[in-house]
Design goal:
612 residues, mainly beta, 11-stranded mixed beta sheet, 7-stranded mixed beta sheet
Length: 612
């Protein structure tokens, strides 16, 4: 600078401390150019992707970016910029490459301009290719971009890599297992379904069965590598399980010998190598993913009939041609304890005129299933319909399960069991010739009004209780009767074995003449108000009687006497009792049903007795 005040000498100023002295305070310096310099490419890259794999002819878009101050930081494509994507079969400096594909402007990316080119469309041969970007601004030198940080340098910023296949490789089994079950136990011949799964990308992740997949379940008696096994059962497609396909096979149906077996899965896609699956995580390796284990036992023995009886009735009297249903039960574990009729069971009711072992009898009538009785099955048949002659008959049950030996059932008051001729015996049926019958109306008046289940019992019914019809305190029953003289009475069925006998004194007697006229008792008025509980103090055993039985009393609180009647109502014996236990001799009586009436003071106790 130069200054002058008035006409004084000039003074010169230097930068920026004072008078110019050429050292401390010097002149400023200005460069004046003719035109400003062009901006330059200060950053370029290979943006995306780093690498990839395509089939020959597929598209493969490659992106790259460039920065030029005041050029690319404007909106839209910067002027005078050219871009290429180049490729080579060798991973060398892109400046040496000769194959460059023109890239087109794509978009602004911040202050950068992004370009793209379809590299796949320009490659005509399969192989591995390396690619990078190239940019030029105006006619300045080329700048090369690497992935994905800046100018290509071969170390930090490098070329991308593209694999071009001629045809896509077949997908492969990348996962297989033994899904379920891990282990089990069966009987020889039983089913044992085994499940396994496999995964093949693009094959099993489609809906339904994947194409060209084969599956097997294999087994061996040694826990070795499944690849060494020889027993393989084709498995069938079961269902989709997510992206996997599940297969199954019945292993049990293919094993013919008892023992311990190891099993695994095997899969093959197209003609690729077999792949083996273990439980339940993936390929079999013998440690983490292992074989399943199956124990096969011999078939257990068939169940057997362990109980059978003659259920009901113990005895009866009918006329020839009358029906007489007989019931019997049996138990076979696992068979009769199911709902409904047990399979493979045959049942019969047999009869004989001799009270002998039923195994020797020849007359057997098939019995039909009646109902479940707890865990037992009950069968029945109409024995009366099979008998063609009047007489005395003995009957028992017979059962067979599958082709096992026949078993025979007998009756006892405790429920019965296998026939043994003593504890469990045959039933007894007396069949008389039919004669002309007349209806006889019996009328009983309950003067006490205490009873709700009065039943008729007498010779005509074989002393079996018969329901009566109630109308207030009046109870009636009409019976078809043959001419003859009959004892009878009534009882209250209170659920006890013999009920409460309601007739005081001797039994009532009805006489029916050949012309149908009636003499004797056909009406009765009940005034008896019930027995004391002392009937439980009287017992008669054994019953059925083989000849001698014992009448046992609990006390002598009143005089005791007993009377025995046959099935026709005839008095067979009458005697007083002088001790707590009295032996009654019935050895001279014919086999059949008798009635024992024990009277103690005003009370009486009635017992049906079967004489063998």
């Amino acid at each position: 600078s130069r200054f002058q005040y008035l006409s004084q000498p000039y003074q010169y100023g230097g930068f920026d401390g004072g008078f110019w002295d050429g050292t401390t305070n010097t002149s400023g310096e200005l460069t004046v150019n003719l035109t400003p310099p062009d901006p330059e490419i200060t950053w370029a890259n290979l943006q995306y992707p780093e690498s990839g794999t395509i089939e020959l002819g597929d598209s493969y878009d490659v992106y790259a970016q460039v920065y030029i101050e005041t050029i690319t930081d404007q909106v839209g494509q910067g002027a005078d910029v050219q871009a290429w994507i180049g490729y080579s079969t060798t991973d060398t400096d892109p400046a040496t490459w000769t194959n460059w594909v023109i890239a087109t402007y794509n978009t602004d990316q911040g202050n950068n301009d992004e370009y793209q080119a379809d590299l796949g469309a320009n490659i005509t041969t399969q192989g591995t290719y390396y690619y990078a970007s190239r940019f030029q601004y105006l006619s300045q030198p080329y700048q090369y971009g690497g992935f994905d940080g800046g100018f290509w340098d071969g170390s930090t910023n490098t070329s991308g890599e593209l694999t071009v296949n001629l045809t896509p490789p077949d997908p492969e089994i990348t996962w297989a297992n033994l899904q379920y079950p891990e282990s089990g136990t069966i009987e020889l011949g039983d089913s044992y379904n085994v499940y396994a799964q496999v995964y093949i990308e693009t094959i099993t992740d489609q809906v339904g069965q994947g194409a060209d997949v084969q599956a097997w379940i294999g087994y061996s008696t040694t826990d070795t590598d499944p690849a060494t096994w020889t027993n393989w059962i084709p498995a069938t497609y079961n269902t989709d399980q997510g992206s996997n396909d599940e297969y199954q096979a019945d292993l049990g149906a293919n094993i013919t010998t008892e023992g311990i077996y190891y099993y695994a899965s095997r899969f093959q896609y197209l003609s690729q190598p077999f792949q083996y699956g273990g439980f339940d995580g993936g390929f079999w390796d013998g440690t983490t993913n292992t074989s399943g284990e199956l124990t096969v036992n011999l078939t257990p023995p068939d169940p057997e009939i362990t109980w059978a009886n003659l259920q009901w009735p113990e005895s009866g009297t009918i006329q020839l041609g009358d029906g007489y249903e007989v019931y019997a039960q049996l138990y076979v574990e696992g068979i009769t304890d199911q709902t409904g009729q047990g399979a493979d069971i045959q049942a019969w009711i047999g009869y004989s005129t001799f009270d002998t072992d039923p195994a020797t009898w020849t007359d057997w009538i098939p019995a039909n299933f009646s109902a479940d009785q707890g865990d037992n099955d009950e069968y029945f048949t109409n024995l009366g319909a099979a008998i063609t002659s009047a007489g005395t008959y003995f009957y028992a049950s017979r059962f067979q399960y599958l082709d096992q030996p026949l078993v025979y059932g007998g009756y006892s008051t405790s429920g019965g069991g296998f026939w043994d001729g003593s504890a469990n015996v045959s039933g007894f049926l007396y069949v008389s010739d039919p004669v002309g019958s007349y209806p006889v109306l019996y009328t009983v008046t309950d003067a006490t009004g205490l009873y709700a289940n009065i039943k008729f019992s007498g010779d005509v019914t074989g002393w079996l209780p018969v329901d009566m019809i109630q109308n207030g305190n009046l109870w009636t029953v009409t019976l078809d009767m043959n001419p003859g003289t009959y004892e009878w009475g009534v009882l209250e069925d209170d659920g006890s074995p013999d009920g409460i006998w309601l007739v005081q004194g001797d039994n009532l007697v009805t006489t029916l003449a050949e012309d149908g006229s009636i003499e004797g008792d056909i009406t009765y008025t009940i005034t008896f108000v019930g027995l004391e509980e002392n009937e439980s103090n009287i017992a008669f055993y054994p019953n059925p009687s083989l000849g001698f039985s014992t009448l046992e009393l609990g006390d002598f609180s009143a005089p005791v006497a007993y009377t025995i009647y046959n099935s026709q109502g005839e008095q067979m014996k009458q005697s007083t009792v002088t001790q707590l236990k009295t032996t009654i001799d019935m050895s001279a009586y014919s086999p059949g049903i008798y009635l024992l009436v024990v009277r103690q003071g005003a009370d009486q106790w009635v017992q049906r007795v079967v004489k063998r």
